[in-house]
Design a protein that fits this description.
alpha+beta, 7-stranded mixed beta sheet, 6-stranded mixed beta sheet, 4 helices, 20 strands, 17% helix, globular
Length: 309
Amino acid sequence: MSDDPPGDTDRRRGTTVLGRRANGPFRAIRRALAVGCLVVVAGVPARPVPASPAPTTLWVAQMNLCNSGRAACYTGRAVPRAAELIRTERPDLVTLNEICQDDVPTLEAVFATVHGRARVTSAFQAAGDRPSSADTRCRNGRAYGIGLLARLPTTASRYTVHSGIHPAQDLADPEERPWLCVHVEGGLNACTTHLAATSRSVALAQCGQLIDGILPAIRRRTGYAPTVLSGDLNLRPGDVGTCVPPGHPRVGDGAVQHIVASDDISLCCARSVDMDGATDHPALLATLVVGCARPAGQSSSSSGSRSCS
């Protein structure tokens, strides 16, 4: 794999305003206090000392909508139910699995309305179709895959979209599983994926390649940012622990959906929300605190991690 993940998109308008991507977190992701202290010693001013960024709290929602129209779990009601959840819960970041490309602008419109005058963005990555060497398609003919909706901080000047197909795939399954990240400069790297459902060993390989290869490559390209990965990993909690390094907080729905973060993020208060039979997965919601340092010696666990006081 090269150091530069494929499919990167750089969005910039002027110096402070981001464009919105139809294919394409964040309740003011770095509410940094731009205050410098001037200290005078023997009549000579010292260098200004920048204030530390205040921790930022975000509300994250993960949903698998089973909306291809081809699977037995399809009901045709998942997108309206997802829209209802966005209106009720008002998440800052939404990760979406098993959706059609046209579901993204539909849900982005609801997401944007919920957040009023805040800037939002969206992204989509299609799953591959091995037999045709093209995209997997929904029953309505649109590309099928994964998506992400994010509220952008007012201080962000740029974001980049990184996406692709996992190197490891189950060759017995025609669907090639994708990954997707939106990196907000000076803020957060928000990612989602839908790992293989047909092979535990392949899902573990995909998880390991994402954590150990793809995410570090994005950091080398864009610079470091706290990272959160949210999605249907098709792995049980014990399996996730074998591909996520120690010290990385994670929460889950007790089944196959998980939210995993870098060690400078706190995760807590996870809960599952029933989707009223619209899809075969509950929604998974959690509180994410960016910029919360863990006290020395404290470790994370599969049921949660530290919290900021």
